[in-house]
Design brief:
The chain has 255 residues and is mostly helical. Helix content is 67%, strand content 0%.
Length: 255
C-alpha cells in the first residue's frame, strides 16, 4: 500500500516529467551555450576536456538564471493580502518545486549530453532525474544517501533500472517533504520574492557544479582501459631428433 508521502513524490515526478523539454530542444540549447563558451574563451576551448567544462559552466549559468526568475515569479501572489499569501504558500510551493526540478533535470540532461552520454536512453534520463533530485536535496545541507537510503559506496550510475526508478521516487518524496518550509517564507510579501529568486539560483548552481563534477568523473573512469592481457609465451618447436646413421655392413671375404 502506498503511503501519502510516496503519493506526493509520484505526483511531483509526474509533474516534472510533463514539464521537461524534448531532447532535441536541449541539444539545441547546448549548441548555443557551446558557441558562447567558445566566444568567451577561444584559446581555452581548443582542448576538448576544457571545452566540456566551459560549456557545462555556461549551461549552469543559463539554467540558474531561469530558476531565479521562476522563484521570484511564483512568489508574486503574496503581494495580494489574504488569499494571495495563502495561494503563494500552498499551491505556489509545489509549482515552484516542480519547475525548479524541471530546470535542474534539463541542466543534468544537457551536461550528460556534453560529456557524451546518450540522453535518448531511458536509463540515462533516470540518472539525470536522480542526480537533479539528490543534488537539490543535498544542497540544503543534508545528505540524501544518509537520510533516506544507504549508499554502500556505490555510484548512482552503477544502479540498475529498477533500483534507479525506486531511488527517483524516494528522492522526489524526500524533496516534497523537505520543501514544505519554503511555503512559509513565500507568504511574506517582497521577502518571499527575494528569497525564492536567490535560493533557486544558488540551488541550481550547486546542482550544475555537482552534475559536471560527477559526470566528468564518470567519463574519466570509462576512459581507463582494462589492463591488456599478457600474451602467452610461444611454444618452441622441438627440433626433430636426427636418426642415427646406419653402420655400413662389412663384406664377408671367402678364403
Amino acid at each position: 500500500m502506498k503511503t501519502s508521502d510516496e503519493v506526493k513524490g509520484k505526483q511531483l515526478l509526474s509533474a516534472v516529467e510533463r514539464l521537461v523539454s524534448s531532447n532535441e530542444t536541449l541539444r539545441t540549447h547546448v549548441a548555443v551555450c557551446e558557441a558562447r563558451a567558445k566566444a568567451r574563451a577561444p584559446e581555452a576551448s581548443k582542448s576538448k576536456d576544457t571545452l566540456r567544462q566551459l560549456v557545462a559552466q555556461e549551461l549552469t549559468r543559463s539554467y540558474s538564471n531561469r530558476a531565479a526568475i521562476a522563484g521570484g515569479a511564483t512568489a508574486l501572489p503574496a503581494l495580494i493580502p489574504g488569499v494571495g499569501s495563502l495561494a503563494a504558500g500552498i499551491a505556489g510551493t509545489f509549482a515552484e518545486l516542480a519547475y525548479l526540478l524541471k530546470t535542474e533535470v534539463e541542466l543534468c540532461l544537457s551536461i550528460s549530453h556534453v560529456y557524451g552520454f546518450d540522453i535518448d536512453e531511458p536509463q540515462e534520463r533516470q540518472l539525470s532525474f536522480l542526480l537533479a533530485a539528490v543534488s537539490t536535496y543535498d544542497a540544503s545541507g543534508k545528505n540524501f544517501f544518509v537520510d533516506v537510503v544507504r549508499a554502500e559506496g556505490v555510484a548512482i550510475w552503477n544502479y540498475g533500472s529498477r533500483v534507479l526508478a525506486r531511488m527517483v521516487i524516494k528522492a522526489m518524496t524526500a524533496l516534497a517533504l523537505a520543501y514544505v518550509w519554503r511555503g512559509l517564507l513565500r507568504m511574506v510579501p517582497v521577502l518571499g520574492i527575494v528569497i525564492g529568486s536567490g535560493m533557486n539560483k544558488v540551488l541550481t548552481e550547486r546542482v550544475g557544479e555537482r552534475a559536471s563534477r560527477d559526470l566528468r568523473t564518470r567519463r574519466d573512469l570509462m576512459k581507463v582501459k582494462a589492463p591488456t592481457a599478457v600474451p602467452a609465451p610461444k611454444k618452441k618447436k622441438l627440433a626433430a631428433k636426427k636418426k642415427p646413421a646406419k653402420k655400413p655392413k662389412l663384406a664377408v671375404v671367402s678364403s
